[in-house]
């Protein structure tokens, strides 16, 4: 029998709901809740047999097994917590929330109710990241001591400066909203969490553009185009822009590894570059899609040298290099059976915590600040795979 999934928020991230609709193959979207009339109309077109409503109360009273929270980030806690309290397994899109306090409230609700919590950090399923992690786990570069990530966000103007992402009251900032993905990957590859962070950044380009307009009711696909170039010629930006368009953070992890993450939202190219250095070598990706290469150096060289080994990122079909499909497959299995998953609520919380504190450093005087830790009881519970009831036993 298919897992019955309800979706809250069928806008920008609605593609994940479409991915989850696999009637007859394990899961089906049977309900959608959204305040937007446009979103409700699109949901009815995509899922003709689903119950569609604007009322969260009506939605949570339906016969569901799981709820996918695909709302804007500042609304995650307001939906995820009552869904957990209603007894549903919950998929919460990343970042888990926009404050450490809300992250902890979500984890506490899952622990208190026994309802299963899954966070959609799809990059853990990206073939390029999976390849790099497998090389690390095989010991090919020894013990990880440093990770550097450069994120060239070539679509930054269209993706983040024409809607709510540009408003810190709704996103905190892009070092959290966008950076949480990469901070989580850095933590995962290094095998530790940030204990201290220090950051700098600025609003270097988009803040000087006066062409603004309210895009309420629009979707990113309504305005996105690769022809929107150069960044200084951007039009129709969000009325409020008070987040940084370039930033970088240094991290000291609790296992002694050091890391740095840089993002720029006005570059011409769009990809991530990770360099991971261990006690016996280093790896680095060149491109992050199918067919890209991960290079490994594990011998001493004079100057720049060809890699000692090169690995090709495997082919995959679907969003984010096939990661979206793998993410949904794991979530549905988790709803049915529980157990360990590649993603982790604790790791999701710690990525947010690092991003929040880094933003505090960036907007302060750039000093190094401690990252608060999660209480041990919650760490133990989630690290054990959330030994809670399945959807079938509700």
From TrEMBL:
Which residue intervals define the domain Gfo/Idh/MocA-like oxidoreductase N-terminal in the entry?
4-121
**Ranges of residues in domain Gfo/Idh/MocA-like oxidoreductase C-terminal:** 133-365
Spell out the molecular function terms from Gene Ontology.
nucleotide binding
What's the superkingdom here? Bacteria
What's the short name of a Pfam family annotated to this entry?
Answer: GFO_IDH_MocA_C
**UniProt family annotation:** Belongs to the Gfo/Idh/MocA family.
Can you say what this protein is called? Oxidoreductase
